[in-house]
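User: Hi! I'm working on a homework problem where we have to compare a predicted structure to a textbook description. Could you give me the structure for the chain below?
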Amino acid sequence: MTKVMAFLCLICISSTLHAQVNLVYNGSFEAHLRCPDTWDEVKFAYYWNSIDTSWSPGDTVIAATHPKCLPEYVNICGTYGGEAPENGFFYQYPRTGNGMISSRVYYDLGLAGFDGYDYLQGRLVHNLVAGKSYCVTFFATKGNWAGYNINNIGAYLDDGSIDTASRCAKAQTQCTPQILDTNIISDTLNWTKIQGSFIANGTEKFITIGDFFDTGNVRKAYLGGSNFGWYTFDDVSVIASDAVAYAGRDTAIKPGDTVSIGAISNGDGMPCWWYVLGGSSPIDSGGTIKVHPTTTTTYVVKMDLCGTVTYDTVQVRVWPAGVAPTFASLSGVTCYPNPATNEVTIEG
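Assistant: Happy to help. Predicted structure tokens:
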């Protein structure tokens, strides 16, 4: 009976604690159709576009119908306009991996009708649950050669209705972002974390990142040289606020092997940091990482969800050369009675 009660307790615990799942597809912009080779190619990053989804890869940027609200997909493998780290508007490496987004989030020529706002829109894995709290996180840096530093960069989550905007490059002031950073972001070197939580209404299936305020409602610092505020973005996540860190299951590898640890799927872009047990400096970030230990090592993952910090550990055992791992057989395990009504006993 004691064995059964312990087993049931484990089931109860696992049903109330939920490992982290990033509900944003391709949150670190690693998966792409092909390397970018000019401006405005946001749709080469799978599951991402602007709020004008009529544009598709293959359309030319000089076409008369080309929308003016398209961010740039940037990758280490990119060329003219889509290259990193050195670009026409910044010098920046992606925060993680090889991909990121460059976006003109503010534009002011001082002339009516001349709009130039970019909006970055991504798909969620599924609709959010009504009444449930979610933590939204993304990271930003300011482009080195942009003329403006601004505040009020935020994220707006909805059912996609924002995509019906008649002028996608106009400040979308009809939308109230659930997540908003009211500080002016001026750092061109270090990534600034933008994070906040909100209660979903159940219709949200898209996330849109940008500036949702007109020129009169944004605090800004004009540096000269251009009429826009240009920022890069990376590592976007939407995670249920009650989620806890998950380092994965203990595993064994052969000498020289590499193994993935952490979230089972869609782990990129999460606000997680990894350490070797006993170490004080992070070795990597994101919900899933690859490790290549030479000896048996325990790793620790730390997740910060809007101020709630949780930890988990995983051990990667490295078997000595020439020794194969062996696992206990289930042949000696019995479970009775079968069928059972109220109680079951497991032995072995």
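For your comparison, note the following. Residues 1-16 have pLDDT under 50 and may be disordered. The longest strand covers residues 228-240. Good luck with the assignment!
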